[in-house]
UniProtKB/TrEMBL annotation:
Name of the molecule in the record: Iron-containing alcohol dehydrogenase
Domain Alcohol dehydrogenase iron-type/glycerol dehydrogenase GldA: 19-190
Domain Fe-containing alcohol dehydrogenase-like C-terminal, residue spans: 201-398
Gene3D superfamilies, alphabetized: 3.40.50.1970, Dehydroquinate synthase-like - alpha domain
GO molecular function terms listed in the Swiss-Prot or TrEMBL record: alcohol dehydrogenase (NAD+) activity; metal ion binding
Coiled coil: none
Amino acid sequence: MWETKINPTRIFELRCKNTTYFGVGSIKKIEDILEVLKHKGIDNVIFVTGKNSYKVSGAWDVIEPALNTLGFKYSLYDKVGPNPTVDMVDEAAKFGRETGAKAVIGIGGGSPIDTAKSVAVLLEYTDKNARELYELKFTPEKAAPIIAINLTHGTGTEVDRFAVATIPEKNYKPAIAYECLYPMYAIDDPALMIKLDKKQTIAVTIDALNHVTEAATTLVTSPYSILLAKEAVRLIVRYLPVAVNDPENLVARYYLLYASAIAGISFDNGLLHLTHALEHPLSAVKPEIAHGLGLGAILPAVVKTIYPAVAEVLADIYSPIVPGLKGLPAEAEYVAKKVEEWLFNVGCTQKLSDFGFTKDDVPTLVKLAKTTPSLDGLLSIAPVEATETVIAKIYEESLNPIS
């Protein structure tokens, strides 16, 4: 296969809406990025991250000396957890204002980088708060410069305009998407990801798989989104088992990261629909659920639901998972079973009942999917009409493995 002919240590620029430095060792590009900021008169930044990953990954070993060499002032907000809340955003934004930060650098996976994007907005809109941002009470047109240093191969947030945060008292987990949320620069260095454990490796990669499944099948998809989806699925199927069994395999990390990035670009163009709209209520109600594993629990039922409407597309992009499909609506149940079988084989084995949900929870989940700000937009571009009945059936069929 041609992948073996690519040198993972050769850093290239992945150009989409922003510039992403991609490849082993690209964390060293942070000095170049800081020099660009300094040339723009910015020498005071806030880092938004989790408690440990920015150090464990090795990223901080390169970043801190660069900051000192260039004489940057910086503050560090390291309290971002999985499924971040609007309270975390507000706390970080307050800290950034107090310390005079003029740019925001997110270090981590989707949670820290999405939080960093939100903080960047609130540094510009000092009279607003995160609840107003995520309840869509204003439309931001500007944000402080955003730099994304990515530590997982899943969300694609480093290359797109999306961010997510939970409003805990309402069990809302909205998604926002604005032009001002694109990072100025991003770093995708697979060497920073070799410390991801097995569960994280699986969860983040299944997130990327869902991104392309949805992006390729929305009502607003394009050949570009479908092309990227097909390649992302191929790479995920080939390299996820390798990374699970050999976590320090840089070739596997490289291609899973590349799959994640192009999946991010795919859904930045094609958008998302049912799987994400239905997962957000799950991890809003139970924040301990890893987003990717929640998606994996409901993906087979979503595939079964949408396949008759988009059979030709899914037959094509899913050929590495389910070879020999003809793209006929009658294949829907067979494809759903084979997708679940593949998920189980790579270690994504939990269903909704394993997370503690029962049939009694379905009406609440349906209501959240229908009423959470922004999710109506995703549901409106699903390839089938997302009625309450359809949504309820997906949740119910996801409680346990397909029989």
